[in-house]
Amino acid sequence: CFGLLERIARSRGALAQFLQHHSLHCVFQPVVRLSDGQVFAHEALIRGPAGTSFSSPDAIFAAAQNENIIREIESLCLIVAIRCWVAQQRQGRLFLNISANALIDANRSGQISLWLNLASRLGLQSRRVVLEITEHERVADMDELEQVASALRIHGLGLALDDFGDGRSSLRLWSQVKPEFVKTDKY
What we know:
Blueprint: H1 2-10, H2 14-21, E1 25-32, E2 39-47, H3 57-66, H4 70-87, E3 93-99, H5 100-109, H6 111-122, E4 129-134, H7 142-154, E5 158-164, H8 171-177, E6 181-184
Parallel strand pairs: 2-3, 3-4, 4-5, 5-6
Antiparallel strand pairs: 1-2
């Protein structure tokens, strides 16, 4: 986590300065099966301190994009979510949002191993974690994402597609990634 914070601090933008004095936290939204209405998981949703300019996830990610630290922020959010989940002694599955391109970058840089080690150290079994691929950007390398998905499954992680049908999603993504879960767009 310290390496991430150092890279974020080097950007010297408003978000980076904010994160030196404030922390992010999570709220957990139930994920419900349509077939029976049962809650079977929770999705981690990142938040900043209430009443600040970075209280909303949209503000956090927009600033991260502008400061060119989006991948670092996505990784930091996963770490914060895992820690919050374990600290609250939650049960069931944990859905963690990440963009496809951040997932590819995390695989290349070894970040995925760090996430897995953190979860293991904290007692969170990888089979309870589902990486939810957000569809806010086009996937840069679909074939590489498919390889990353296969590697994640070896470690017991599940995959989900978020907001499928929201315009950037594609049947090719569904076909190649073969997610265990698909969350359709509200429309």
